[in-house]
Amino acid sequence: SASRPNGHTIDSAVSHPWCFPQIYLKLISLSVFTLEPNYALFLTEMDAPLSTPCNIKICEVTCDSFRIMWDMAPEDSTRATHFFIDLSRKENRDPNRFKHRDVPTKLVAKAVPLPMAVRGHWFLSPSTDYCVAVQTAVKQPDGDYLVSEWSQIVEFCTGDYAMEHLQQLLDKAKGSAGRLLKFSVFYRNQHPDYFDYVRECGGLMRPALKDTSGSHGSPINGKLHGVFFSCNTEFDTGLPPRDSPYGPLRFQIPAGYLLNPNICLYFADFYCMYTAYHYVVLVLAPIGTEGDAFCCSRLPMLDLTSNPFLTFTAPKRQGEEPLYCHASDVILEVLFTEPIPLDQGAVEQISGHHQLMSLTTANAKKDPSCKVCNISVGR
C-alpha cells in the first residue's frame, strides 16, 4: 500500500474513523467526473428542468373521450417518461339537486406519441364543460418525478350521445316499456298564466327550447325546440290522470292531430330520477320540417306502426277510427316540434285536488347509479 506523509496508507485510511469521509468523497468524485464521464452527463440531463407545455389542443371529442396534444422542447420529447393530466369540470352555472357531484381528476399516463387519447365514462360526462392542464415528467431512478410547470388551462366541451349510444339506451328502454294501452288524446297541463299568454300571442303554443332534464348526453337537450305533451292514461279509467305536477289547467287535443302518417317518430331519452318508475322521451316531427331535419341524423327513428312506446294503426275498414296506443310501464314525454293552435283542442280544469309538484321533471338529472336506464358511456 502507498505511504502518506501522515503515516497512513490508503487501505488503512478507509477503516480510520476520521480519515474515511474525506478520502471516500474524493474517491466518489474521481469516479464520477474522471472515470465515468457518461454517467455525469446522464445525471446532468436528468436534473435539467423540463419546458412548460404550450399550445394545448383538444381534438376528436366524443361524449366520453378526447385527444390532447401540446408543444414542448424537442429534447423534452425524448426525455419525458410520463404525462400528468389535470381534468376538472368547469364550475356549474346551473346547479341542480339531482346532479351527482364530480371531483377534479388527475391522470398519470406513460408518455406516448401525441395526440394522446383520454377516455373513461367514470370521470367524463357527455355535453359537459371541462378544464384541462398538462404537465410532463421524467421518472428518476429513486422513483421521484422531475416535473415541468403546469401548462395553461384549456376549456372544452364533451359531445352528446352518438347514434350508437342512443341505440343502447333504446334497447334498455324497450325492456321497461310494458304492454300497450289505448288512448285518444294528448294533453298538456299548465298554470292559467301560460294559457293567458298563449291567447295574447295569437292562440299558438309555440315550441320552447328543451331543458337539460334527463340524460346529460341526449342530443335534444338545450338544442331542440318543441311543445311537451303527455298521453299516459290511468289503468282503471283509460283516461288521463286526474292530477298533474305542472298546473291545474289541461289542454287536450285529439291524438290524430299529433300522431299520423305525416309524422316522424324518434327516440330521444330514457331516464329516472332516483325513483322506481322511468321516463321515455319521444319526439314527433312533421315530415320535412326543421325539427325532422335535426332529429334524422341524431336520433333513432321508430316505426310509427310497430314500436314498444307509441303507435298509430290505420283503420282497416271504411268508417273505422285509427288506433292509438302508449306504453303502460313508463311515463312518456312527447315533444312535438311545431306550434299547436289552441283552437284545435280544449282547455279544462283538472278534477284532482292536489298538485304533485315533487314529480316535475324540469331540469332534473337522471340517477347515475340506476342499472336499468344507464349505459356504460357517459351519464
From TrEMBL:
InterPro entries: FN3_dom, FN3_sf, Ig-like_fold, PHYHIP/PHYHIPL, PHYIP/PHIPL_C. The keyword Glycoprotein applies. Its interaction with PHYH suggests a role in the development of the central system. Keywords: Glycoprotein. This is Phytanoyl-CoA hydroxylase-interacting protein. It holds the Pfam family PHYHIP_C. Interacts with PHYH and ADGRB1. CDD domains: FN3. The lineage of its organism: Eukaryota, Metazoa, Chordata, Craniata, Vertebrata. Transmembrane segments: none annotated. Belongs to the PHYHIP family. GO terms for cellular component: cytoplasm. Residues 157-379 form the Phytanoyl-CoA hydroxylase-interacting protein-like C-terminal domain. The keyword NADP does not apply. Coiled coil: none annotated. It comes from the Eukaryota. It comes from Nothobranchius furzeri (Turquoise killifish).
